[in-house]
Structures are given as structure tokens and as C-alpha cells.
From TrEMBL:
Name of protein: Ribonuclease P protein component
Any one Gene Ontology BP term: tRNA 5'-leader removal
UniProt keywords, alphabetically: Endonuclease, Hydrolase, Nuclease, RNA-binding, tRNA processing
Gene3D superfamilies referenced in this protein's UniProt entry, alphabetically: 3.30.230.10
Lineage: Bacteria, Pseudomonadati, Pseudomonadota, Alphaproteobacteria, Acetobacterales
This protein's GO CC annotations: ribonuclease P complex
Reaction catalysed by this enzyme: Endonucleolytic cleavage of RNA, removing 5'-extranucleotides from tRNA precursor
Annotated function: RNaseP catalyzes the removal of the 5'-leader sequence from pre-tRNA to produce the mature 5'-terminus. It can also cleave other RNA substrates such as 4.5S RNA. The protein component plays an auxiliary but essential role in vivo by binding to the 5'-leader sequence and broadening the substrate specificity of the ribozyme.
Amino acid sequence: MADKSTRLKKRAEFLRVAAKGRKAPVPGLVLQALERGDTEAARYGFTVTKKVGNSVVRNRVRRRLREVVRLLDRERTLQGVDIVVIGRSGTRDRRFDALVGDYRKALRKAGVKEES
């Protein structure tokens, strides 16, 4: 995630991905992906509900998810897709390497095509 312009920020963007995209639940997170049909860089959105914990806990979960995406985005480039990563209550206590594996598995389940 090179810059913040590759983020989903507006509620309408999140709702569009939720309504039309593919959902891939895994133990550490839920991934929603929607193909845009262009060759622009992937855009990412992160969300964690109040069920997960107070604001300190939610922000920590969100930071962990952003770091997972950042690390894997350096390995491979995703293009033409909007991705929403939803934190679960298990995300907080899950080992980081397990979260990385969960994200990879979720990308495969959602059918996101990667560019090397």
C-alpha cells in the first residue's frame, strides 16, 4: 500500500463491495473482494465492529490488518480490485504469521487474481 489514495474511505464504496463482491471468511478475518475491471492498483478498506472491543482494541486490530496487507502487497501486486478486510474478535489474539496465512487463504477463496 504505497499511498493513502489506494484506500476505500466512503461508506458507499464499502457497501458496493459488500453487495456485489465475493466474501471469504477465514478464522482471523473476513475478506470481501470486488473486481473493478481496470488495471489500476488495488484499493483497500479496513473495518472492525464494536463487538470486537473498545476503540483501543479495534484500532490495534485495524493496525495489524493493515500491516498484513502491506507486507503481502510488497510480494505481489493486485490490480483492478477493491478489497475490504473485516477484523474479527479472533484477530486480536491470533499470531501474526497465522493472520498472514489467513489473508493469503482468503484471497484464494475470493478468487482474487494476483500479478507478480
